TrEMBL record:
Keywords: Disulfide bond, Hydrolase, Protease, Serine protease, Signal, Zymogen
Protein name according to UniProt: Peptidase S1 domain-containing protein
Single annotated GO MF: serine-type endopeptidase activity
Native organism: Helicoverpa armigera
Family to which the UniProt record says this protein belongs: Belongs to the peptidase S1 family.
Pfam families per UniProt: Trypsin
Length: 237
């Protein structure tokens, strides 16, 4: 991430998705048992391969680790289109909240962000397109980009769908990068997007692309409920 180091206490919902002991993606804690991340972070894998780290500004140490018990990624996600790049994780053990660990509210269904409004993206991703992954959480402020403008930039390789939103600057220099995938894009203190894809990192005229939480809110709510019900039923049996 081409960005700045900041005070973690203001972003206590940010989690590191740990795969076999190493940071692999970001995520957002939205309840004491649920994390939202990107589908491409987990598709084709198994829940027992993952833990989440909460309450730490470091990707490899500190805070507390919680094992992932189950997950679902959006059935419409594919690498060929990168549409609906969103997933929910159910945690085996409920997270204990504190001044360093707290959930974030998700954007409401069909809630929109005005073009040019400032959003905040956070993560432990590369500082440069060529590498330089930090161990301390980073953040960057990027304005929301008009969908038509974003679509024109990425045609004909990808199409910007209604399930995506874009954020970045025309001059480049500010963006998410490799390792930030699945992390939160925040607007008005709500989870508005999930880091999904882009062309390189922070290139001029190529904004970052995010899964749009408000457009996918119904799927999120339904699948959070289904995961909880599934495991309540198992505990009763």
């Amino acid at each position: 991430m081409i960005s700045l180091v900041f005070c973690f206490a203001f972003f206590s919902f940010v989690v590191s998705l740990v795969r076999r002991g190493r940071h692999s993606c970001g995520g957002a804690l939205v309840a004491d048992d649920i994390v939202v991340t990107a589908a491409h972070c987990i598709s084709g894998s198994f829940p027992e391969m993952y833990e989440i780290r909460v309450g730490s500004s470091f990707s490899q140490k500190g805070g507390d680790l919680y094992p992932v018990g189950d997950f679902r990624w959006h059935p419409d996600f594919s690498y060929s289109k990168m549409d609906s790049d969103i997933a929910v994780l159910w945690l085996k053990k409920k997270v204990v909240f504190s001044d360093r660990v707290a959930p974030i509210e998700m954007a409401d269904k069909d809630e929109e962000i005005l073009d040019g409004d400032v959003t905040i993206v956070t993560g432990w991703g590369n500082l440069f397109e060529t590498g330089g992954m930090p161990h301390i959480l980073q953040r960057v402020a990027v304005p929301k980009v008009n969908e038509q403008q974003c679509n024109a930039a990425y045609q004909p390789v990808y199409t910007i769908t209604n399930n995506m939103l874009c954020a970045g600057t025309s001059e480049g220099g500010k963006d998410a990068c490799q390792g930030d995938s699945g992390g939160p894009l925040v607007h008005n203190n709500k989870l508005a997007g999930v880091v999904s894809w882009g062309l390189g990192c922070a290139r001029p005229d190529y904004p970052g692309v995010y899964a749009k939480v408000s457009a996918l809110r119904t799927w999120l709510d339904n699948n959070i409920a289904m995961l909880r019900w599934k495991h309540v039923q198992r505990s009763v049996e």
